[in-house]
Amino acid sequence: MVQSLPVLRPNDSLANPDWRPRLELLLAQGVAAGADLVEVFLERTDALGVLAEQDTITSVSPSFGMGAGLRVFRGRYDGFVSTNDLSESGLLTALDQALGMLGLLRSSQSLSAYEGLPPLVDHGIAKGEWLAQCPNLQEATTRLLEGTDHLSRLGQHLQVRRGSYARNWQDVLVVASDGTHAHDIRLHQSLGLNVLAADGDHRASLGRRYGSHGRPDELRQWQAEEAARDLCDSAATMLRADYVEAGQFPVVLANRFGGVIFHEACGHLLETTQIERGTTPFADELGQEIAHPAVTAIDEGLTDGAFGSLAMDDEGMAPQRTVLIENGILRRFLSDRAGEIRTGHGRTGSGRRQSHAFAAASRMRNTYIAAGPHTPDALIASIDKGLYCKSMGGGSVGPTGQFNFAVEEGFLIENGQLTKPVKGATLIGEAKEVMPRISMCANDLELAAGFCGSVSGSIFVTVGQPHIKVDTITVGGR
Amino acid sequence: MASDTTRTDFPASLDGASLRQRLESLARDEGVGRWDLGAGCSTDTSVQVDRGEAKQMKGAQRSAITLRVWNGAGLVGITSTSDLSDSGLARAMAGARAASDFGNPDDVPAFSPLATAPLPPLDQPLQETVSILALLDTLKGAEADLLQRHPAIATVPYNGLSQRSSERLYLNSDGACRHQELTTASLYLYARAEEAGRKPRSSGAMRVAYGAQDLDVEGCVAEAAERTISHLNYAPIDTGRYTCVFSPEAFLDLIGAFSSLFNARAVLDGVSLSKRESLGQPLAVPFLSIRDNGLHLGNVGASRFDGEGTPTQCLPLVSEGVLVNFLHSEATARSFGVAPTGHAGLGAKVSVGPDWFEIGPSAGIPGGAEGLDHLTGTGPGVGHEGLVVIDSLSALHAGVKASQGSFSLPFDGWWIHGGESRSIEAATVAGDIRTVLNSLVGFEGLAKLTPGGLCPWVWVDGLSVTGEA
Questions:
Q1: Which residues of A are less than 8 Å from B190 in CB distance?
Q2: Is the CB of residue B104 less than 8 Å from the CB of residue B348?
């Protein structure tokens, strides 16, 4: 008899008013001790991972947890303590530790200076049934096996076929002594298909990932056959692809996950975290032209269902649509609470963290280059010899602004036409140099889900762009 | 005057007897006959600084368990949780029981036959934790020292000093009980240097020890300064093929990224370049040997047992260039007809991973060039194009295709040409791991102890380097 996993019930919610007096006491004691601001982030999580390999479910991994992160500010400085112990004594111990980091001591003096929390801003009201509405294990495993079956039917030389599903449900309450009192429920789901094609010495490993926020039906509505066909076509193309020739070339980056170039090359450098560290070359460039006039770039948390969307950030602030670059001119940085205190750039609803174990930091949400006037074909037609990057892998940016990212699926551009497939390319460069070289943007903006790892952990994000042309970039290869 | 309320003692102890009692009761209620559990708890404190001031101070108390059960049909399910309350454990038991309905009948893990075998001795002194304010003072001092090493070093944007006290526990329903306490501390310093009209450059160093008071702070500062300063004089490099010399850290990173070569789980899953029949076959030049030795004294924070309770051991992987062993969990070992090697995680599908590599020459086997010196570029095969020294590799998560064997990775390093050394402005190195392992020219110097393993400088012939020149 197949059972359903036990699920957290809505009446367990952190929106339960029983939390209020306990948290108000914490805030009051922190303020009375001399803190400028005390913030408490509470969360409960319920996650599920399922893996299908070939035609078998090989792993079902449920997990659940809870915890709190307490942050205390005094002037420009802060102390942060996380704990799994949500008892009153556990939270007080954490508060004591955070206060102690700033040279403060909880005392028995009057708590009357603290006025208490305002009414709860509850973004989670209509989301109480999200978890229950998600596919149960039977549905999830069946859908994944459909995916690997499609791969089997549509692919050739597939040595490995994998489908994966991850569901992350998060119940969040944020309170702070500045009056923040907000609750939300988040639901992120992601689906992946991966293959390894092998024929003799030829090998190609490729994958596709899809993700959404706030859509319990995501897995049910997944177009498994279409996804499998797309992946199998790519695997067949790349199986016998040659390694790319190294050098400096113009490149066209496809839409969707091609947007990782802006994420890595520029997006991270527009986070106030980087200003604080002194690791962004753009710190003093507000109002200056830092990119080609063809480039307008946006970061927002509003697109319905997008992986990086959120009803409130992890500091309880509603998200915004933040225009970062407008026609090449730097307009805004992404800022969190600490960023505002330390750099003066106003908060943008971008304070994000993986979990209670991390202090929030300024992070991207849905980040993309806006559509331009050209057709994708026009970009390719403008290049005599170059590289078309159809599918991108991951990337990173270093402390000097140098970025890199891998090309999963590439094609040579010769005389304005796509010719043979190539693999093994890595694009490297520096933000200040590459942004002015994005000279053409096409009219086919699309977004793609991804994960971003940085100072406050791994978070759900969206990258995106239309097809873009970079006039020249270093292509690492053989 | 700052207070000292952040001082931490060892975490609240994991009470194996109590956990066992509670789980046995819950298992009976769920009709579960066999179970095992991995548990951990830790207390962490850490600091970061920025130009003489505290940037962030953090503390954390963590606890978590992974519970694995076998249902009446013999299938396995797991659940993980950070809620160790009675209700949390009950929910974990129910969740694992429900997940077991979807257990894989073709690959059922069992208890490790070595889960009660004697554990190897490990000299791991438990050090007293220090106050977070003492950590802060130490890190401020290290930062100040590093900043005054060279006028171009203006900031140390990535830095951290942390300490951890932790416990691990493994229990199973057959009576196995493993327990380990550990203290560790780590320091990292990554400096950013910039000279007028030139691009910023960055490099750094890290150290680990059993306690914050044991960290080699001076050595870390000196290495971070030396590495950073060495990259100030930079120039682009021409794209081409070069003899490359990997630093011990860089070569360990490269081997680690391709550790699926030695991973029995990856072999069974078809994602390794190795196959069952690869055992006994040449993988590399005869003078290369690789061992996985989690028990090495230099492996600070070593685990005495793996996720299934199997003792950690020193395992030869490549001897005289020949692949001689795979890393195993209980299930993969059973499939290969060998004993588990102590490299398992804990899960419904058990992962397998390496502990700590020792890379170097094969004892008594001649081969490998003598007299190699990357500082002067002296060695065989170094032509007019010069020598490329790879100090550190970046973006291994993106630039390595382990199942294909290929890599294309950005790196920091130097170009040695005409007896002179210049830092390389920006470049990638690309190749195939099998070709690399068969193109080793030799080892330079004695093996260096690093946080990630033991390895000398490694010379490799003919790798593709892409530069910006």
A1: 399
A2: yes
Strand partners, A189: A167, A212
Pick from A238, A269, A290: which residue ends a domain?
A238
Touching check for B78 and chain A: CB below 8 Å? yes
- Closest-CA distance, B363 to chain A, in angstroms, reads 32
**Confidence (pLDDT) at A397:** 81
Residues of A in contact with B102 (CB under 8 A): 50, 57, 60, 137, 141
d(CA A465, CA A441): 8
Q: How much is the mean pLDDT over chain A? A: 94
Summarised one tens digit per residue, pLDDT across range B250-284 is 999 999 999 999 999 999 999 999 999 999 999 99
The answer to whether the CB of A301 falls within 8 A of the CB of A329 is no
Chain A contact for B141, CB < 8 A? Answer: no
Of B4, B192, B464, the CB nearest to A246: B464
Structure-token pair, residue A69: 């992160």
**Number of Cβ atoms within 10 Å of the Cβ of B86:** 11
- A-chain residue closest to B8, CA distance: A97
Tell me if residue B121 falls in helix, strand or coil: coil
Eight-class DSSP state of B356: -
- Tokens (6 digits) for A48: 């599920």
Backbone angles phi, psi at B96, to 5 degrees: -65, -40
Instruction: Point out the domain boundary residue: A195, A217, A238.
Output: A238
Please report the pLDDT score of residue B364 as a whole number: 79
State the ipTM, two decimals: 0.92
Min Cα distance A357 → chain B (Å) is 7
Instruction: List all residues of chain B from 358 to 417 with a beta carbon under 8 Å from chain A.
Output: 394-395, 397-399, 401, 403-406, 408-410
Q: Residue A399's pLDDT is what?
A: 77
Total domains, chain A: 2
Give pLDDT < 70 ranges for chain B: 1-13, 469
Q: pTM of the predicted model, to two decimals?
A: 0.94
Across A210-226, average pLDDT:
96
Do B403 and A248 count as a contact with CB atoms less than 8 A apart? no
**One domain, residues B222 and B292:** no
- With CB atoms and an 8 Å threshold, state whether A474 touches B270: no
Are A212 and A349 within one domain?
A: no
Query: How far is B244 from chain A, CA to nearest CA, in Å?
Result: 14
Whether A202 and A260 share a structural domain: no
Domain membership of residue A5 (yes or no) is no
- pLDDT of B85 reads 87
pLDDT digits (tens, 9 = 90+) for B367-421: 788 889 999 988 887 888 899 999 999 999 889 999 999 999 999 999 999 889 9
Residue in chain A closest to B72 (alpha carbons) equals A1
- Strand B357-361 versus strand B453-466 pairing type: parallel
* Distance, CA of A371 to CA of A304 (rounded, Å): 18
**Together in a domain, A292 and A145:** no
- Measure B80 CA to nearest chain A CA, in Å: 4
B136 three-state secondary structure: helix
Q: In a mutagenesis test of the B interface, which of A44, A81, A101 is the best target, namely the one with the most B β-carbons within 10 Å?
A: A101
pLDDT digits (tens, 9 = 90+) for A249-292: 999 999 999 999 899 889 999 999 999 988 899 999 999 999 99
Q: Distance (Å, rounded) from C-alpha B32 to C-alpha A235?
A: 44
A85, closest residue in chain B (CA to CA): B61
